[in-house]
Amino acid sequence: MNPVQLSIFANRLSGICDEMGALLRRCALSPNIKDRLDFSCAIFDASGELCAQAAHIPVHLGSMAYAMRDLVAGRDWQPGSLLVVNDPYLGGTHLPDVTVVAPVFHDGEAAPVAFAVTRAHHANIGASAPGSMPVSRQLEEEGIVIAPQWLRQQGAWSMPLVRQLVSDPAIAVPEDSPRFADFVAQASACEAGGRWLAALLAERGLAWFEQGVVALNAYGERLASQLLAGMPDGEYGFTDYLDDDGQGTRDIPVAVRIRVQGERAHVDFSGTSDQVAGNINCPLSVAAAAVYYCFRCLLPASVPACAGLFRPITLSAPEGSLVNARRPAAVAAGNVETSSRIVDAVLGALAEAVPERIPAASHGTMNNLAMGAHASGDTPGWDYYETMGGGMGASAHAAGLSGVQTHMTNTLNTPIESLEQHYPLRVWRYALRRGSGGTGRNRGGDGLVRELEFLAPAQVTLLTERRTHAPWGLAGGAPGQAGENRFNGRLVPGKTTLHAAEGDRLTIASPGGGGWG
């Protein structure tokens, strides 16, 4: 393919991913998916290598790219089948992120020629705590663990699994269950993506697709290799710290050493903490997603998302460490908080190699808030989960943005109108946290303040970071201001469970970004 043909090929595939995302958003019922857009869509080739992705959630798609080859290999794929998984140790990230995989067949081929994939965050995946993001110590506390298995086969739902997912042994028609609606939306998006890709293959031919994938990966690999060749050879290290694990362990190191040699780079996590009792552990696929993201940010925005981008980059982490945990370590916050700190550590190391291209630390936490109430008598239960933005780190070229999601997530906020319509909550304040960005020649962005009043009793879980270790500045810039959480005006820990009564108020102040210069 010449460059124009390759660009058309890449954009046709990414366009299908965009359409899958639009369909998923329109079909889902939960604010977490339809308002916050906490989902991702992608296309993989027959071997499970990434071909295209929409601009959704970095931590979702980097981890899928790392794990899909094992997920799709050796299975009896049939038309109408759907695979589902959320097990972090078998291709998932954390339990609320559920992945659905649909095979794509072409013109009588016995085996799939590609796969359409969605991953979405479900606010209720069966954990004991509403919102399914508990301050946990074991994986099983975090909800239903779904090993890779068939959600549908030959068009028929796997009813035992459906009944488990909706906690209703009497359900007969999955599509009629509001609790199952988001799963149906994911299935629909996968199947629609498969149909659109099959139509494209019917139009252009399987050889065109296979040649395009080879050319696309070769192009991505060349760009990544050129990026690394432009860096000075050497070893670059950085250690950052997580505040705590919610179970008493504090100041937990995430150590990174990057070895750049020619057109290759190796990222080594030796020196990182062993896995801990709390739920900030993560599987290696999440660490890989954070590493891939950092290098991807140094490439032009127009670079297509494909497996070739990641080929020049390898990584290693001691088994049983915080970033390569062993079952049954709890991982609910690893996907959101530890991934954010891995990014900070990798960028800190890269700042030694290419200081003019790396920004100061951003707010470094997703400020996770999960809450709700279990059903009681005639009173229905509810589950809600949200993340909050904060300050972006400043760079040599510009000040940091204020009040934005950064790095491993780019979800939207839940609009106040939607939040108050769906849940017994009132938003009293939602504003920039003025002056929380670090000072410097270029100032870090400011964080946010969000104050909620509970209109009914609820159980609340906070999984937040950068409450003691502030986001660092670069080139002499000052750190951003650390975040804080207050319940009825009283400071509460970064990771905690609260029981709110009617009239109680929760205030979350997110960190500012570090300054530069």
Describe the structure.
The protein is α+β, with helices and mostly antiparallel strands and 517 residues long. The protein has 2 domains: 3-219, no CATH class; 360-517, no CATH class. It contains 9 helices and 20 strands. It has helices at 3-27, 31-34, 58-72, 159-166, 181-204, 206-229, 284-296, 334-353, 416-422; strands spanning 39-45, 50-53, 82-85, 97-104, 114-121, 149-153, 156-157, 234-244, 250-261, 264-268, 313-316, 368-373, 382-386, 425-433, 447-454, 458-463, 484-487, 490-492, 495-500, 505-509. A 7-stranded antiparallel β-sheet has the order 2-1-5-4-3-6-7, with helices on both faces. It has a 5-stranded antiparallel β-sheet with strand order 14-15-20-17-18, covered by helices on one side. Strand 6 and strand 7 (156-157) form a beta hairpin. Helix 1 packs antiparallel against helix 5, helix 3 (58-72) crosses helix 7 and helix 7 (284-296) packs across helix 8 (334-353).
